[in-house]
Amino acid sequence: LKVTPTMAWLKSDTKEFKSDGSKIGFAYGLIAEFNFGKNYAFATGIDVAYRGGKSKYAYSTVTPGLTTNSTIESTYNLEYIELPLTLKFKTNEIGAMTYYLQAGIQPGFLIRGRADVDYNYQFVSTGTTKDSSSSVTDIDIMDDINSFNMSMIIGGGLEYNLSGTTSLLAGISFSNGLLDVLDASALKAKSNYLGLTVGILF
User: Fold this and answer.
1) How many CA atoms lie within 13 A of 134 on its CB side?
2) Mean pLDDT of 123-146
């Protein structure tokens, strides 16, 4: 069993669409390890992961006599079922401690997508400027997010033997998105997070 508090953010590949900060999330799930040597294991499981981040999209439109400057600030709340597929490299037991490094891939399947959005507009015409803003919260964005995601995951940590085969696990992991999460041809962004994992192995 494990739980992973995370700091999640979006990394944009589009000039006008920029990352505007991170959000606190978490993941939880089950761990399974299959040892194929004294110091090597195939580690997998199933996670429910809350990803996302904050973004800012700015653009301008010009018509005769009027320029409209638009800024859209969004907070994405994305929920995935993820299946980590990793190799785990362990040291020999030192006292009651074993140290490890872990690396692999993490396919994910979108199960929920919501967003909070702030719209800000500036209307500029000859000699006058007018501002306008509005907000919407908890809107459904499932149709705007790709249903499949893939990440590379790397991490490391330690295991403390409690008794017999039962160990307490603690580690740090970084999930680096490999695929675009946005289902829009003009906008590109990848989902990343840094997590602190605490768990127990039986």
Assistant:
1) 2
2) 93
pLDDT tens digits, 24-45: 999 999 999 999 988 999 999 9
Cα angle, residue 51 at apex, residues 147 and 153 outer, rounded to 5°: 90
Pairing mode, if any, of strands 40-63 and 166-177?
unpaired
Report the candidate in 101, 83, 84 with the shortest Cα–Cα distance to residue 159. Answer: 101
> pTM for this structure?
0.90
pLDDT digits (tens, 9 = 90+) for 42-64: 999 999 999 999 999 998 999 88
DSSP 196: E
Give the amino acid at 70: S
CA-CA distance, 125 to 122, in Å (whole number)? 10
Q: Under a CB-based contact definition with an 8 Å cutoff, are residues 132 and 145 in contact?
A: no
Residue 103: strand pairing partners: 87, 154
pLDDT of amino acid 37: 87
Distance CA 143, CA 171 (A): 35
Which has the closest alpha carbon to 47: 31, 24, 35?
31
CA 88: distance to chain centroid? 22
Q: CA separation (Å) from 187 to 52, 53, 137, 143, 176?
A: 15, 15, 21, 14, 18
